[in-house]
Design goal:
With 383 residues, the protein is an alpha/beta fold. Among the domains are: 47 residues, no CATH class; 191 residues, no CATH class. 21% of the residues lie in helices and 22% in strands. The chain has a five-stranded mixed beta sheet, with no helix packed on it. Strands 5-6-7-9 form a four-stranded parallel beta sheet. The longest helix has 14 residues. It is elongated.
Amino acid sequence: MPGQVVLRGRVHKIQPKRPKGLSAADREIMGQFSTRSSASTTQVALPGFLRLPGELRNQIYNYSLEDQDIKQALLVHRPRRANLRHRHRPTSRPYYGLTQVCRVLRNEYRPLHLKKQEIGLDLTDANGFIAGQYNTRQGDAGHCGNGNFTFALNKTVPDKEKYIGVDIWPALNMWANSGKVEAGFGRYMHQNLHGYDHLNDGEAKDLYRLLGRIIDDNGNCSTLINGQWRAVLQGLKLAKVIVVRAPRRKSKQVPPAPRGTQMVQVAPYSPLFRAEPLPITAAPRAPPGVPFIQTTTSPLQWFQAPTAPQHPATVQVLQPYIRILFKYQHRESWMTPNCTYAPFHPLLRLWLRKMGFADMEFFEVQVGYTRSSSRRTATKKNI
């Protein structure tokens, strides 16, 4: 049999000889190309490129990255049908095939490739890409490596993003705790044929606040980072950060206003219309026996007082919102579970201003905490 020699009636295995002059790192690489079995050990020949010293391989990697003008790689999900794919489309990721040869080349070339290559992907595809390319488990975000991402916002909200939103906490966790990942928000180029005005894009500027960016008085997004918000991200105090761009139309009940009050809107912190007491002299006197109720629009309208008690008013909440949910052990006293509606707490306004979420242009910020999972106890049935 090959690999065996019979001497004096006994079978001896022939161990393959390793080439001399290899370093410890090269011997480790050679060990990855060996296939072990219970019967014998077969040594696979090392490829010629991996026989080169590590310094020469790094020079080749750097040369491949500097050879061409690397553009942003827009990652778009394509269907499996061949007639809907672009066959002869030029690649925007040169030498990306080096990451698909073997594990050794992938581990060596991939960090350099991600450091140079800017990647653009849809906001809804961020979690899937990050989970497939990085190890985003809590505590391991510091080992994610390099990365440069731009999360694109579609002009029309896709169906999978409607109503439920997108949890971007994995992306924020990777950005805040890795130290080697750059992230930003933008728009698709084909949707901005007449030019992109970043000063009037309140949606993107509000999302930049999640990255700790500070909005100056002129409406520009500065390079300064809010240290208090980044400390919250680095402390792993959050459970979810859900961005809902197209919320579902819901009707929430508000207690009816007593006589002599009018419905006013508490802006910009609450999306609901709330009853605020006003002096009787602040409004024209109503006819005898008719209470005065001011609608949300002008001019004033008079309504006949019903004999039965008034039903609570219903208001539709249509404003997009960002829901920040803390972990149960990191909650504060003024927070509510799962951001259930409660009277506006004055400490929330101070928290929003301290964390850089005051005076939002597009989104409303809701802050709460998730319910503790440790309180749930399982009972076993006696069989």
